[in-house]
Design a protein that fits this description.
Length: 176
């Protein structure tokens, strides 16, 4: 019995090493435009967005909300309109100073995270519009003297299961 298990394990290891078994969920495409580059899931598409200060957007086409052309799962890269003397913490604090008081958005968590060897500020919150409750993950970082916001969003029920896809984008983000 033990020999049989060892043989099965060895066969599985050989198959994985030869590429016979792949993780289809981790295939990516590369976005390179507007002086930024990042990887995103291969099943997603580049989309146009009306979000203020947006420089890029990608979305899961299978998440289009019924009756709209709008995907529920998307990531929008923004460059907030701030003065050149504003640092990352100031821009973040200014943005959220009244954000949760007047808009009906609800804060879930805040954290300092590290991405690409940089400290980033993360804010996770929920919002409901048109009867659809969504959850957002806003990652604020500064690269090459420009502040970027990587805004990930999905239906609240799907949000946790999409974190690995959001991480692909956040962790591969580069500015030229």
């Amino acid at each position: 019995m033990r020999r049989y298990l060892l043989l099965m394990f060895a066969l599985l290891a050989v198959m994985m090493a030869s590429g016979c078994i792949t993780d289809q969920g981790n295939e990516t495409k590369t976005f390179t435009q507007n002086n930024i580059t990042f990887q995103y899931p291969a099943t997603w598409v580049v989309v146009q967005t009306t979000s203020p200060d947006a420089v890029a957007a990608v979305a899961d086409p299978s998440s289009v909300i019924s009756g709209t052309n709008s995907p529920a799962t998307q990531v929008v890269i923004q460059t907030p309109n701030v003065t050149s003397s504003t640092n990352l913490t100031e821009a973040y604090n200014d943005n959220y100073a009244n954000f949760f008081n007047s808009t009906g958005n609800q804060k879930v968590s805040e954290a300092n995270i590290t991405t690409d060897k940089l400290t980033a500020l993360e804010n996770i919150y929920t919002s409901s519009s048109s009867g659809i409750e969504k959850q957002y993950r806003a990652v604020w970082l500064e690269k090459n003297s420009t502040i970027y916001v990587i805004l990930c969003s999905a239906k609240k029920a799907d949000f946790e299961s999409l974190q690995s896809k959001f991480d692909i984008i956040i962790n591969s983000f580069q500015s030229q």
